[in-house]
Amino acid sequence: MHKLHSLTVSSVEKNTPETAVLTLDVPAALADEFAYSHGQHLTLCADVDGEEVRRSYSICSAVGDGQLKVAVRKVAGGRFSTYANETLQAGGEVKVLAPAGHFGIALEPDSARTYAAFAAGSGITPIISILKTTLAAEPDARFMLFYGNRDKSSTIFLNELALLKNTYMDRFSCWHFLSQEETEAAFLKGRLDGEKIQYILDNIMPAAKIDHAFVCGPEAMIDSTVETLLAAGMADSTVHFEKFMSEGQQSQAPVRSEAAEGVSAVTLIIDGDELLLKADKKTLLLDAAHDQGIDAPFACKSGVCCACRAKVLEGEAEMVMNQGLEPDEVAAGFILTCQSYAVSNKLRISFDE
Ligand SMILES: Cc1cc2nc3c(=O)[nH]c(=O)nc-3n(C[C@H](O)[C@H](O)[C@H](O)COP(=O)(O)OP(=O)(O)OC[C@H]3O[C@@H](n4cnc5c(N)ncnc54)[C@H](O)[C@@H]3O)c2cc1C
Ligand code: FES
């Protein structure tokens, strides 16, 4: 479950000039491990210029497609995304961790729910998986997508979304907002921000009629959209978001709230194995594990992707930064080990929960 598996990339297709869609071959022996639910992501790992680089990518295929696909958009100076767009070819291999994350919600085929999704740029990737899966599994569901991009040529899945509109004519609608190209209607011009979301709620779909909202895009877009939806009366539990990175926090070393001395005896449970670790209380738990040769799972090391999520079963840990776990997970004792320090002298944590 937490081991990297080498998968063959069966195709690399350009969806926009800056976006490569990778289809990954899953051998029959790994089918169960790589079964996924809508909205989950994979951790991909490759040797880039002689160094191992791991990054998270949302699965963009739908559950039931019989395929495993991710879409990687090139970011300027980005190591993995440049490698995926410029070097990786069909027939190549990447190492992959089993699907993780819980951006999507449980399907209810007998319900008749109304969903609204707000996506910008590569934030469409988990959303398209959620919308395709939901429309197929819930015959009475309605889905509205509000999608922001620079222009049409940089819009990921432009054609696929048009086809989905034809397939689900009465149940799926999609509004494209463009910041650098003329649009059919004035309100579609510009970035998706709090003001635009308020316009949508006032003129297209009132918050009271949305059962669940999904938001994914740059951090500022997520924050303003979530804030506007909550201010309009949506409950916390119905507004779901996924961050791809935490701007400005990539290079900050997390700091403990108070000075800590000593060493904690930590038991780590990974894939059913119990591993013992002596963790200095000033060292992040994930770093302590890696320093002692324990192959604990991770990707971003920035408190965003949740690949390093574990549950505290005994003892106390302090999580100094969290951009990925939901409040109910934190309340249940989950931590991001890349952002947590041991507090108690004895600690038992499980990556298998
Ligand atoms: C849960 C999750 C799901 C994700 N899903 C996707 C996905 O489906 N498709 C996708 O393309 N990306 C996705 N990402 C982002 C992805 O993991 C990488 O962060 C991104 O591809 C950049 O990696 P890199 O190695 O190319 O850049 P790096 O070498 O890590 O960074 C180079 C520069 O780019 C900046 N940067 C890093 N990430 C981004 C970003 N996302 N946007 C803008 N600037 C950035 C950095 O601050 C740095 O200055 C996801 C991230 C998470 C946490
Ligand atoms: S490795 Fe991404 S949250 Fe810890």
Write the layout of secondary structure elements.
Elements: E1 5-16, E2 19-25, E3 41-48, E4 51-58, E5 69-73, H1 79-86, E6 93-100, E7 114-120, H2 124-137, E8 142-149, H3 158-167, E9 172-178, H4 194-203, E10 212-217, H5 219-231, E11 239-243, E12 263-270, E13 273-280, H6 285-291, E14 309-314, E15 317-319, H7 327-331, E16 334-336, E17 340-342, E18 346-350
Parallel strand pairs: 7-8, 7-10, 8-9, 10-11, 12-18
Antiparallel strand pairs: 1-2, 1-6, 2-5, 3-4, 3-6, 12-13, 14-16, 14-18, 15-17
Bound molecules: flavin-adenine dinucleotide and FE2/S2 (inorganic) cluster.
Which percent bin holds the helix content? 10-25%
Low-pLDDT residue intervals, each spanning 5 or more residues: none
Question: What is the radius of gyration computed over CA atoms, rounded to a whole number of angstroms?
Answer: 21 Å
**In CATH terms, what is the architecture of the largest domain?**
3-Layer(aba) Sandwich
Instruction: Note the run of SSEs as H and E.
Output: EEEEEHEEHEHEHEHEEEHEEHEEE
Number of helices: 7
C-alpha geometry: globular
Oligomeric category? single chain
Instruction: Look at the structure and give the CATH class of the largest domain.
Output: Alpha Beta
Strand % is 25-35%
What fold name stands as the CATH topology of the largest domain? Rossmann fold
CATH-level-4 superfamily name of the largest domain: Nucleotide-binding domain of ferredoxin-NADP reductase (FNR) module
Strand order of the largest sheet: 4-3-6-1-2-5
The unique ligands bound to this protein are: flavin-adenine dinucleotide, FE2/S2 (inorganic) cluster
How many E-type strands? Answer: 18
**Describe the biggest sheet?**
6 strands, antiparallel
Overall structural domain count: 3
